[in-house]
Design goal:
single chain; 398 residues; mainly alpha; DNA polymerase, domain 1; hpI Integrase, Chain A; three-stranded antiparallel sheet
């Protein structure tokens, strides 16, 4: 029968004191005359007895209450030993294929930075919040943007959570980054590209490829990698819909997973579908992709065969540089591709309920979507100004 009771008992140490006659005192006098600590004892899931000592009885009893809950659900085993260096190696192997390639690259980079700071030979369960605070202070001392450091805190917090469950290297509640506060960062206003601004840029776009790409981005809220991995099979010309779905590697397809592994279907205007029809009529038959030409795909596939291609490589080169040129020629404020996504979500948020926008945008957290409902646009500013002007008109002698 498994032992499930956590107990607290005195643990005596040192020599037994002697009485006046030189004999050891009886055991009933030990609590008053002999040195001791309070020991919490329990058994792990394999029947091995474990213990932890405390100087104070109240502290021991508090630990017992918390530990009893863990024992009851089988989570009181002693963490397995592993160095930070070996944990990082294991993490790379275990997470491959479980997260997006770019996410894994970011995790590797952040873990290596932390390893450089604390050393790779430290036992994982010996890393406490002081190490986490020291790492954050070191990163901030290098004049890094607070947003960058905050991302590193979130990344390490999530990785150490994996070290707790399911890997069992750290006891529950012992994540060193759990209570490390992120630095305050002023929220940047959502950059909105108006239809007029996009029209100006479209007039500077040199060909149908660019016009179609910009229009699809503006009306689907597609991320850059989602659009570049779009195939003709993802376009439902009959129902005016576009599907962002994962791709398995084949002779002509590159492996790709959407962010958060979520597929979604987006309704698009007829004008955009017509642009796609026109682009398909111009496309060569070799490439199954909407925005990757046959020539470019051939080069990519050759690099993949030689092992020189990965998911983080640029599918189409110099896109942002060319977009900046279009903006400058159109005399429009500079924007990036993600701003087209933000603008589309802003347009949806004006008329659609928040849960629908979250689904269409592919946001894993509703808090991300809520930003678009709380943002103040130009029309809001104009209305606020009009209200104040009406109030001022009622003041006299001013």
């Amino acid at each position: 029968m498994a032992h499930t009771k956590v107990s607290v008992t005195r643990k005596y140490y040192g020599k037994v004191p002697l009485d006046r006659t030189g004999k050891p005192i009886p055991k009933n006098l030990w609590p008053r005359r002999r040195k001791f600590s309070w020991e919490v004892r329990w058994y792990d899931s394999e029947g091995k007895r474990l213990s932890k000592s405390f100087k104070d009885r109240k502290e021991a009893e508090e630990h017992t209450r918390k530990l009893q809950d863990k024992v009851n659900i089988g989570k009181a085993d002693k963490p397995m030993q592993i160095t930070l260096r070996d944990f990082i190696k294991e993490h790379k192997k275990l997470m491959k294929g479980q997260v997006a390639y770019s996410t894994l690259i970011d995790q590797k980079r952040t873990l290596n930075l932390f390893k450089e700071h604390v050393g790779g030979e430290i036992q994982l369960d010996k890393i406490n919040p002081r190490f986490a605070e020291s790492f954050v202070a070191s990163r901030l001392s290098k004049k890094l943007a607070p947003a960058t450091v905050n991302k590193e805190i979130r990344t390490l917090r999530s990785i150490f959570n994996l070290a707790i469950e399911p890997r069992g290297y750290i006891a529950e509640g012992m994540n060193p980054f759990e209570k490390i506060k992120q630095r305050k960062v002023a929220d940047k206003p959502v950059k909105y590209v108006s239809p007029e601004e996009l029209t100006g840029v479209l007039e500077e776009a040199p060909d149908l490829w660019w016009k179609t790409y910009l229009m699809v981005a503006y009306t689907t809220a597609g991320r850059k990698d989602e659009l570049l991995n779009l195939t003709w099979a993802d376009i439902d010309f009959e129902n005016d819909e576009i599907r962002f779905v994962p791709k398995k590697a084949t002779k002509k397809l590159l492996y790709w997973e959407p962010k958060d592994h979520d597929s979604r279907v987006i309704p698009v205007p007829e004008k955009v579908i017509q642009l796609l029809v026109n682009l398909q009529n111009q496309a060569d038959e070799f490439s199954p992709y909407v925005f990757i030409t046959g020539q470019r795909l051939t080069r990519i596939l050759k690099r993949r065969t030689k092992g020189k291609w990965n998911e983080n490589s640029e599918v189409v080169n110099n896109m942002l540089t060319r977009l900046k040129v279009f903006c400058k020629r159109a005399d429009v404020g500079e924007f990036c591709f993600h701003d087209l996504r933000r603008s589309c979500i802003t347009n949806w948020a004006k008329l659609l309920p928040i849960h629908a926008v979250q689904e269409l945008a592919g946001h894993s957290k509703i808090e991300t979507t809520r930003r678009y409902y709380l943002s103040v646009g130009k029309s809001d500013m104009d209305m606020a100004r009009k209200i104040q002007e009406e109030v001022m008109a009622k003041l006299t002698n001013y």
